[in-house]
Amino acid sequence: MVLAAKIFEIKEDVDLNAIAQKLKDFRREEPYQGKKGETKLVTEISDLKLEESSLSGVFSKDFVRKRYYRRESDEYPVTEEAAFRINRFNRRTLLIVLAPSGASALKKLLTNYIANELSEALFMRLGAIVEMRLSHETLRKLHESTPQATKLIWFDDIDIPGVGKLSLAGPSVANTKLYKDYLEHGKIWYVVFEVQKRGITVGIARNFVVTLFSKGTIDEFINYISEDLLTLTE
User: Which of 58, 64, 135, 212 is deepest in the core (most CB within 10 A)?
Assistant: First the structure.
């Protein structure tokens, strides 16, 4: 299964024990009147597990989804959930939200939603948990350190009129004239490459969305992010 994660930073100074105490009873219910009667849409956190330097859990939220059959619409509740982990990294506190890649649009929106919900639950305001970013220069160095491992590069912020994004695919894109030309006209937004020492293939974007395309467990994925990628943000 392909895994994806988005990394955020908790800007407030708070320890994991305090976070665990505030989140252990997190639950919210909203009434919903459907065709089959009234029910409740639940937003909650479950499976909290506190370890020495990390806190993990599962955030779930009920949504109402609409479907059409023979010109008639029907609404039904569904539950979307995503695992998350809060890690201490040096002097920083980071939030990693995971969700299967390629799932519903709701699943992709859920990562930002979770960050905002946790910000309000922990600090009673938005903005205490913010997106982390990688620079174009960081992705360029990451690619050019082992160019033979790169599978795909997307460029954005293109200064050519009428061109929004450019891409290159292949094992030797760093050695092509097009790669050098594209660097003159845009910035690297997304790189897919093989991490040779781990035997995995990942994609990394500047908004710190990381996708694992190889087989692996969530723990292995988290370890890769923590041990290999977080150092890029220092």
Answer: 212
Answer whether residue 105 shows pLDDT above 80.
no
Among the residue ranges 111-115, 183-187, 217-221, the one predicted with the least confidence is 217-221
Strands (DSSP E) found in 18-91: 27-34, 37-50, 54-69, 72-89
98 and 225 in contact (C-beta within 8 Å)? no
Dump pLDDT digits (tens) for 8-47.
999 998 899 999 999 999 999 999 887 777 889 999 999 9
> Is it the case that residue 109 has pLDDT exceeding 50?
yes
Query: Which residue ranges does the chain devote to CATH 3.30.530?
Result: 3-131
User: Which has the closest alpha carbon to 80: 116, 41, 119?
Assistant: 41
The CATH architecture annotation of domain 3-131 reads 2-Layer Sandwich (3.30)
Distance of alpha carbon 32 from its chain centroid, rounded?
Answer: 29
Joined tokens for residue 30: 């909203």
Q: Among 178, 157, 158, which Cα is nearest to 168's?
A: 178
Phi, psi of 17 (to 5 degrees): -65, -40
**Max CA-CA distance within the chain?**
63
Q: Please give the backbone phi and psi of residue 168, each rounded to the nearest 5 degrees, phi first.
A: -135, 140
- Residue 113 confidence (pLDDT): 92
Cα 232 versus chain centre, distance: 16
